[in-house]
Design brief:
It contains 8 helices and no strands. The chain has 153 residues and is mainly α. The radius of gyration is 14 Å and the shape is globular.
Length: 153
């Protein structure tokens, strides 16, 4: 899953969006005793049915905005359900996703325009950072061990 984050920005925005969201799936903080099960259920749903899965770059801004709005809702749900052991990593990913959503809005949900914007260049650097890489590895481990979701699934 995290591997898709690093390669997502090298391909196109649709894949980048999937990467950010799937990474977000494995992040976020909660305190409910059943949070691990809830978190894994939400992560599995997003792995199987991401709103960004079929973005090709040919969508209208309204279609992209609809996918972003749905993903923001999903990321917020994940944030509330994630177990404490990945809360720190979750905060990092939620921040990155928020920046991603803001960059899309700033570029009028135009995929081509957004990919070429300075905000996306900055996000790409953030995703390539050691901090993000380490968080991604921890989240991937959690997803594989506790949720049964692996990077290639």
């Amino acid at each position: 899953m995290y591997q898709r984050i690093n390669s997502g920005f090298g391909r196109r925005l649709g894949l980048a969006a999937v990467s950010v969201v799937l990474f977000s799936v494995s992040s976020c903080g909660g305190d409910d005793g059943d949070s691990s099960a809830d978190f894994c259920e939400l992560a599995t749903k997003l792995e199987e049915e991401s709103p960004f899965e079929n973005l090709t770059g040919d969508e209208s801004p309204d279609e992209v905005k609809a996918a972003m709005d749905e993903m923001v809702k999903d990321v917020n749900a994940l944030d509330k359900s994630a177990p404490d052991e990945i809360a720190e990593e979750a905060a990092l990913v939620k921040e990155a996703f928020t920046e991603f959503a803001d960059a899309m809005a700033d570029n009028d949900y135009d995929l081509t325009k957004a990919v070429q914007s300075p905000e996306f260049a900055e996000l790409s650097e953030k995703f390539d950072s050691d901090e993000f890489t380490e968080a991604g590895e921890k989240l991937d481990d959690y997803l594989a061990t506790d949720c049964g979701i692996t990077s290639g699934s």
